[in-house]
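Researcher: Re-running this chain for the archive, since the previous output was lost when a drive failed. Same request as before.
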Amino acid sequence: MSQAVTMQNATMAAAMLVVDAATADAISLLRGDAIPTILLRGPAIAERLYGREELRPYGDADVLVPREAFDRAEGVLQKQGFREVPAEVAAGSERPGHAHTWIGPKSGVAIDLHATLIGIGTSPERLWHTLADEVETLELAGTTVQIPSPRAIALILALHAWQHAALPDVPLEDLRRAVRLFPKTVWADAASLSQDVDAVAAFTTGLGMVSGGVKLVETLGLEPGALHKGLRGSQAFHIAQGLDWLRQERGTRAKAVFVVRKWLPQPHQMRALYPLARRGIGGLAASYVWRTGILAWHTPGALLLRRRARRARASQY
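Model: Regenerated structure tokens:
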């Protein structure tokens, strides 16, 4: 391993330790107000799927709380100096409905506070009670936190891959590893969980985005069904978010690659995003044209949202 790669890994590992500490602090704050939590991804996935010598990068934390405690949880974070992401404040009703993002006052780490998950058709209350019965513990920065069981992680990974179908890297790699490492019995249990929370369609579609997952879908006899998309938030919001991510890319080449990947996802990603793309080569080609038109139509709204977000950010300081 080259010295440059070693240094990069060391820097990444140090950044993840900061995220771990901030996550443990946020969970401790919520626990102090008698709010139970489940750490959905990040360290939970790294613990399950990656060896001690491997790095699974993550820069934020996804924390699920009961829906009835969601508003109280936001109040706890706000009292401790956390602030909402300006883009979400500016988006209002156009923001995604499954979670709100809060930024730590000292660490700057983002805590995605979840009431539910995208792709779930059942109520947030039923989702919480289902996942609360599917937890194990993990020591994180000196704090014991609850993380999902293997079959719950399997469900979450498939939903996450479908949710971020236009992002080709980490969500799909997590899912590929899970398909390789988890036995078929775990995936059968995950399929059963997906039925319990009315998420079979998103689970099946996400799982089918990786080669080994396609075989699992066939083996388990899963049928796609109707997808639940109501919590995604507006197209304008996601384009504005993408423009923010683009700004963070370093170098012209990196920016160009990012634009191409977001504008023209791979065929399997297009099939996850658009039913039309599943209708042969013609449907796939038409879906790319449709996507281009959608992006063009909503870009002015995204630019307006970014302007409102800058104003919201200025008002926070």
